[in-house]
């Protein structure tokens, strides 16, 4: 797949690198520093390059939105027309100090995003994990029991694209239903962050859904 | 431990039964039907009996609050003075149709409960799992990898009591920090419910926190 990365912070940089190493064509975009984007593309190897948000969006099969919520409007404006695009968002509707969700329960950040880009297909994913665990999980992708990664969205085809990306970086995709489930996955992401950054075990954590009963 | 169960719905009935089978003294209370409470106590075996909420609270080392949010005020009034009591709550601040959290992000159901009973120690636990999985997990408690169960609260001793109960029914307790983390654990509980009741795999699900990196 061709994957455009909007945002080159911890999540965007690491996920883009891993997508490239998993064999996808990746365009890194939206950093204050063009040098950083070029270094990311070089270090990722494979088919990765640096570009503008518009270039990242242009021929992308999926876009990863990985910016702080305060930058969403700006990066969307720079990306141009996103009608019919698949947008996988790991952006959370956080306040400036990253301590509280500013949107929830009657709406979610992902649903608010879907309203901003009415022609696009939004999938909420990659929210519920610390970036620190990404390379560990990718390195262990051949192991029998993979961590889960919850995603949700309203359209089947875009959800399949997101599930492919999730699978390719070493996680088991878990479908949490419609995009409105982001009202729950976004607070869950903050719970994971709390465990990762305020807990004693360190930030390299993930979770696995376990099934009992018949199976 | 002596455990008082306030509420005899799915969670209260099953958790009380399992606490009794794990060796705790259990008092079931707060059902419309006294017969139901007596049947629960009989079926649980061990040191289980039926009682009023006041009897359940009287000499309890820990109380499990397992009623619908619309019944919290009533059961607290019946339980009497709860100063210095440990209250482990699995009650969620749900609306009448159980479809939305009515409290969150600037408060949580567990924090609201703590405000109602200022002398008591509230621990939020047993929220993030479907009742259907409880007996499976208890039956598998000798297995090497246990499911996790997230809990949070503001005082160490009551949290240790909750962790003991969690461990005794087959889960690994995971400390999510202060009671305000219930702002995240309560939406996470709804995510688990969504996966359990709207997913294809059935309701017998749990989750396990995985640690990577140094460990």
Keywords:
8 helices, 38% helix, alpha/beta, 215 residues, homodimer, globular, eight-stranded mixed sheet, Rossmann fold
Which residues of chain A sit in consecutive blocks of at least 5 with pLDDT less than 50? none
Please identify, by name, the CATH architecture of chain A.
Answer: 3-Layer(aba) Sandwich
Number of domains of chain A: 1
**Whole-angstrom Rg of chain A:** 16 Å
CATH superfamily of chain A: NAD(P)-binding Rossmann-like Domain
> What general form of chain A does the structure show?
globular
How many strands of chain A? 9
What oligomeric state do these chains adopt?
Answer: homodimer
What's the pLDDT, averaged over the residues of chain A?
Answer: 86
The top level CATH class name of chain A = Alpha Beta
Number of helices of chain A: 8
Strand content range of chain A: 15-25%
Neighbour order of strands in the largest sheet of chain A: 3-2-1-4-5-6-7-8
Q: Name the structural class of chain A.
A: alpha/beta
Question: What summary fits the major beta sheet of chain A?
Answer: 8 strands, mixed
- Reading the helices and strands of chain A in chain order gives EHEHEHEHEHEHEHEHE
How far apart the termini of chain A lie comes to 33 Å
Helix amount of chain A: 25-40%
Name the biggest interface: A-B, 45 and 45 residues
What name does CATH use for the topology of chain A?
Rossmann fold
Descriptive report:
The structure is a homodimer of 215-residue chains. With 215 residues, chain A is α/β, with parallel strands linked by helices. Chain A has one domain (2-198): NAD(P)-binding Rossmann-like Domain (Rossmann fold). Chain A has eight helices and nine strands. The first copy, chain A, has an eight-stranded mixed sheet, sandwiched between helices. In chain A, strand 5 (86-89), helix 5 (109-116) and strand 6 (121-124) form a beta-alpha-beta unit. In chain A, helix 1 (10-21) packs parallel to helix 2. The longest helix of chain A has 17 residues, at 182-198. The radius of gyration of chain A is 16 Å and the shape is globular. The mean pLDDT of chain A is 86. Chains A and B meet through helix 8 and strand 9 of A and helix 8 and strand 9 of B.
